[in-house]
Amino acid sequence: MSNPSHAIVQPTPPADPFDPALEWVLARKLHEAGRFDEAEQAYERVLAAVPEHADALHFTGLAAHQRGDHARAIALIRAAIALDGEQFGWYINLGNVLLLAEQPDAAGEAYEEALRLAPERADIHNNLGVFLTERGRLAQSESTLRRAVALDPGRAEIHANLGRVLLRLSRSQEARSCLDEALRLDPELTLARPLLALIYRRLGRLDAAAQVYREWLARDPDDPTALHHLAGCSGEAVPERAAEAYVERTFNAFASTFDKTLEKLAYRGPAQLAEAARQRLGEPGGALDVLDAGCGTGLCGPLIAPYARHLAGVDLSQPMLDKARLREVYDTLTKAELTAFLEDAEPASCDLIVSADVLIYFGALDRCFQAAAKVLRPGGWLFFTVEALAGEEGTGFQLHAHGRYSHCEGYLRQALAAADLMVEGLERAHLRVEAGQPVEGWVVSCRKEPLAP
Questions:
Q1: pLDDT tens digits, residue range 285-339?
Q2: Smallest Cα–Cα separation from 425: which of 211, 272, 315?
């Protein structure tokens, strides 16, 4: 009898040992490829094996930031710094994330610490100078940026940033010298040309400002900012309204500082419209369908919400809408161009429309008024502000060098009448302060004719 056969059992090969160094290389490659979720997972595997891997903590924080999770990013970068507090770049990254998380004081401390660690780096002085400018600490910003210039006199961006500070300090000639130097060093520097043109506009040298815009357009023929302001400075090829690309770019860039800037300018538009509504509508009853047309960051929202059973906002700038959403007073917020939005809206679907300092980016208002009239129910109200144009000559509106339109009383009445909107009030008012002078405007109350009883 033969012996029974026995299966040969192969030994199980040992699992590949986890190598944190190789995983770190993989994580960095994923991160550089923009695959942030996968990179963060790989970093976490490194940290599971080496909990005090400071670099992994720092880069996990950056990946979290790039996914939009600023709170997690701050915690991780702080943990990395706790393990290794000598990396000036980590403090810069921490400051950048803290700014996005709207913690500016903590951000400033982080930037200051980066500068302590690397006091001879011009880029850190430059970044700190920009931060101080945005915080309104102009004297400190000037000295910081002058130190940056001394450390790296060949860097065009630093000269331009110093020029911006000097412009805000009303030292226009010094600012112009800085911007001329910036453009000499780097003729393609996009930051410098709008600032240089602004200086010439403030000096009343519109021909010189127009020439800056022409040179800008020679390099970038389709730039909406240069096209719009060239028309305002030269009076040539004036559009009937500001291009969508110009408005969107302007307010996207303005969103983070919009409310604070207008507060400094004693901006009164929303309060003036709320008062006009109170005078015409009486005490609010929360029964109206209301549209905030060009809502921006939502400054009108809390003032007009008591009238609304449904409050909608529309604006062309998504960052402005994101700010408006934080007020938690709007039922809907829509990104759209105003006239197109009104034309596409359901007829007779709205009881009240408010529009604060939005129509200053429109010259011809006929189409917008007609669209608003279509949306209003019989007896519905439109309240808006515009800047005032003296006299009744020409088309009844004018584009100015600063990029906004103003309108004369006769034109407003004519355009509203053509849209079958009855003017119930057209009052002269100070809308805000600019360059130390009040900006004159109109607060307009008009109504769609009610149905006959």
A1: 999 999 999 999 999 999 999 999 999 999 999 999 999 999 999 999 999 999 9
A2: 272
pLDDT digits (tens, 9 = 90+) for 185-210: 999 898 899 999 999 998 889 999 99
- CA separation for the pair 62, 285 (Å, rounded): 49
- CATH superfamily assigned to domain 256-448: Vaccinia Virus protein VP39 (3.40.50.150)
Residues of the chain with pLDDT under 50: 1-9, 13-15
Q: Are 272 and 443 in contact (CB under 8 A)?
A: yes
CB 402 within 8 A of CB 169: no
Q: By the 8 A CB rule, do 179 and 196 touch?
A: yes
State the chain's maximal CA–CA distance in angstroms. Answer: 124
User: For residue 177, what are the CA distances in angstroms to 133, 148, 215, 404?
Assistant: 19, 16, 18, 27
Rounded to whole angstroms, the Cα distance separating 144 from 158 reads 10
Residue located via tokens 């995983």:
23
CA 185 to chain centre: 28
Q: Residue 390: CA atoms inside 13 Å, Cβ hemisphere, count? A: 2
d(CA 203, CA 195): 12
- For 223-252, give the DSSP string: -HHHHHHHHHHH-SS--SB--HHHHHHHHH
